[in-house]
Design a protein that fits this description.
- This is CRDL1 protein.
- Pfam families: CHRDL_1_2_C.
- One of its GO terms (molecular function) is BMP binding.
- The chain is of the alpha+beta class.
- It has one domain.
- The chain contains three helices and seven strands; from the N terminus they run ββββββαβαα.
- Strands 1, 2, 3, 4, 5, 6 and 7 form a seven-stranded antiparallel sheet that branches.
- The N terminus is likely disordered.
Length: 129
Amino acid sequence: EDVPSQTFDNKDYFCGKETFPVYESIFTEEGETIRKIAIEIEKPPQIEIHVWTIRKGILHHFYVEKLSKREFEELPYFKLITRTTLSQWKIFSEGEAQISQMCESRVCRTELEDLVKVLYLEKSEKGHC
């Protein structure tokens, strides 16, 4: 049963924690997939974009870039996929660092997919606040 979400100052809260929008962009070209996961942070106001370049299932290149909201709004292909808390984003970032080392020499499709799932807040957790 869904609990109505609380809204303060047009922000979403999850178990009393502020949530931030997460965007995704997936672009495939010549056997290479570029997957970008972005979070919109308010202080300082910026977008942090994590870029993965995947060739034949192997993570070839990974880096992070930061943009202003205005620069981000000009980028095509991004769609809102969820909202997450900063603590979940930290888990995502730490897992990403481990995966980037682990997946330099082997296929890691499922690991990358599972990592993105960390960002989705489970509805069942609402009862465990």
